[in-house]
Description:
The protein is α+β, with helices and mostly antiparallel strands. It has four domains: about 5-70, no CATH class; about 80-165, no CATH class; about 170-240, no CATH class; about 245-364, VSR Endonuclease (Endonuclease, Chain A, 3-Layer(aba) Sandwich). It is built from twelve helices and eleven strands. It has helices at about 5-25, 75-90, 95-105, 150-165, 175-190, 200-215, 215-230, 235-240, 250-260, 300-310, 315-325, 345-364, and strands at about 25-35, 35-40, 60, 65, 110-115, 130-135, 140, 265-270, 280-285, 290-295, 330-335. The strands form three sheets. A four-stranded antiparallel β-sheet has the order 1-2-3-4, with no helix packed on it. Strands 8-9-10-11 form a four-stranded mixed β-sheet, with helices on both faces. It is elongated and about 100 Å long. About 15% of the residues are buried.
Amino acid sequence: MSSRKKKNGERRRGKLNTEDSKLNMSKVKLGKSNKTTVEKILNNHNILCDYGCNQLANYKFGNGKNCCSNFYTGCSFVKQKSLSTLKNSLENEEFRLMLSTSKKGKKFSKGTKIENNYNILCSYGCNKLANYYFKTVNRYCCSETYMECDTARSILSEGMTNSWKNENSGHHSEERSEKRTIYMKEKWSDKDSIYNSKEYRELLSEKVLEAKRNNPEICKLAGEKLKERFKDPVFCREWGIKHSVSPNKPETIILDLLNEIFPNEFVFGGSTIWINGKNPDFVNEDQKMIIEHFGSYYHGEEHRIRKYKDYKNNKEHELEKINFFRDSGYDCLIIWENELKNIKNLSEKIIDFYVTYKKEKENI
């Protein structure tokens, strides 16, 4: 061996010995993870993780950085930073629009199955061992698709919830609302669509009931907001156009009876007549009279207590509706479903109501 080669070899060995003595670490080579050599180290000099978590380093990567975990995504600081970045991104309208456009019509990408010999944790923060690798985003996941990871799904859900709560969000824009309406109409009109399947309807019903049980305050708030919207005549008119309503069997009997006693005086309210957010069943606009039909089930005490926590008895329930329309300038008659069994008595009740209140108006 020439003297020059001998000196270079000693110089290289001396440099390595100097670094080892400086760090005073014993190294055990673990292998490669994502093209980065991972080495287990005995940290006798209390060297901290280079990724910012301030924990002692237990591993060294091929890029020269020390880490508390055998993969940088396992570092608590990196994990928290990644989750924070994802949350912030989801609050950005442009990012969500870009994400929606890029994923439209596509299924969730599936990861590649891996043998996790280095105990790499899921990159989405669930602290489970990774079983799949997503090459396009350079992330590891516990599940074949990231939406199957509970933590990833909860982050997306939280981002969408915050977005909907923001009144200035694009979700509440007229353009987005119109697009949703068109999309859902197409889906619901398709007989072969999943939305028309029995399984989906049962699932939807269960989800709605579960949401009401778990979030009673949100449901109450949504109901109050909807009531306020129905006070807007423009909203009521638009709602009526979209939700055309025909009289049911009991209402048809009452309407036929009204036309027999008072021809063409009462009209069916359907979804077109609104009075301060309420949609009356039958209206005589000239005489300022309203007739309401109360079904035994939906207006019964048991159903009102269970669904609306309304503990008023039937008489109090009647008076509440009568007083509401009276404050709006209308006299109101309540007809219960069981009264339809005796048409003669019902006819007398309607005539008595009509004559009595007409005389009162004439005397005024």
